What we know:
six-stranded mixed beta sheet; 10 helices
Amino acid sequence: MTTGEPAIGHCRAAIEAGKHIVTSNKGPAALRYAELDALAKIKGVRFMIEGTVMAGTPVLNLARGPLAGCEIRSARGILNGTTNYILSEMESGAEYDDVLARAQELGYAEADPTGDVEGFDAMAKVVILANVVLGVPIGPADVERTGIAGITPEMIEEARIEKARWKLLGSVERGAEGIKASVAPGRVPLSHPLAGVMGATNALTFETDLLGDVTVVGPGAGKKETGFSILNDILEIHRDTEGGSR
C-alpha cells in the first residue's frame, strides 16, 4: 500500500498488451484504479478486482450489477476478519493481547499484525469502495484511520450493558461537504445487521436511494474464498467476450 509495485507495473504492461486482468491484489486497486480501469477501457479489456474487498463474497460486482439502477450513497461495514475475531473474543472476557496471540496461532493474524489491527487493510478496502462503487478517486491519505488497540474490556462491557457491540468499521459516504472516508472502532446497536456478524466474518451495508439498506454478509478471507472471486471474475469476462452462458 506504499507504491503498489511491482503489481501496478505488471497490470499496466498486461493491459497495454491487450490482456484482461483479474487480481485480488489490493495495491493496484487502491492506488491506481482509475488509471488502470481507464487504460483497460481504451484497450478493450477488463480490469477485474472483486477479490480485493471481501474475498469470495460479492460486493463490487453486486454494486455494478444488480444494484446498478440505484444511487449508492454510502458503504459501511466490517471489512477485516482479524479485528472482528479479536473483538468478538473480547466479549467473552479475554484480554486483547491474549486474543491477538490466539488469532496469530489460528492464522487469522500475521506475525506482524499491524496491517489488520491498526486498520491499514480496512483502509485499502475503503479506498477501493470509494473508487469503484461511489466513483470518487480518493487515496489512502484521504481516509481517517484508527485501529482497535485502544478498545478495553471495560469498553466492551459498557457496550454490552447498553445493548451494543464494538466493531472496526470501514465507511465511505457522500455528504453535503463531499466524500467522507474512515476506518475506526464504533459501537453498533444490537438491532443493526452488522452487530450480529461475529468471528472472522465480514459484512457490508450499502445505503441506496431505491432499496434502502442492503447488507451482504460472508467470508472475507481465505484461499478458497479468494479463489472463488477470481473464478467469478474470469467467468464474467468469458460471458462478456465469448457470449458464454455459463
